[in-house]
Known about the structure:
The chain is mainly α. The protein has eight helices and two strands; from the N terminus they run αβααβααααα.
Amino acid sequence: MAEGSVSVAEVETSFQKFAVHGDTKATGKEMNGKNFVKLCKDCHIIDGKNVTTTDVDIVFSKVKAKSVRVVTFEQFNQALMELAPKRFKGKTKEEALQQLYALIVGKEPANVGVTKATKAAAVDRLTDTTKYTGSHKERFDESGKGKGKAGRENIPDTSGYVTAYKGSGTYEDKVKEA
């Protein structure tokens, strides 16, 4: 191998990491189309100009066997050989393939920034407990924290006074005065 070239074993390690990504039953020997596209995106093989996701999907369909949905490492290498001249125009096939390998080596599937939590005004309005009315208002205290069981169930008042009686607890004071 020439100076600055990347070993196939290092590429295979990255292949295995992407092959098992998101699939608990995967062994790492075969990669599905979704993970192949993810590898191409995360390793910047897809640049949006020379190589697009459509190109990657077409190459994946070409190299895989007709009756299966996965590619082996050998078929993966075939796919890279087809993508390399597209990604690195003006280079020989071998130089382009080596540069493609260099992009892949040491990479792992990225999970950061894949899904972003949206902060929409509608969601804020719906989850603002100060705007709740009726029986739902009773389930939260002033700070917006839930009251738990006390907010869900009607706990009987056993004080002996009628509900909403303003002078509750004053009978003892009146009896002492007399």
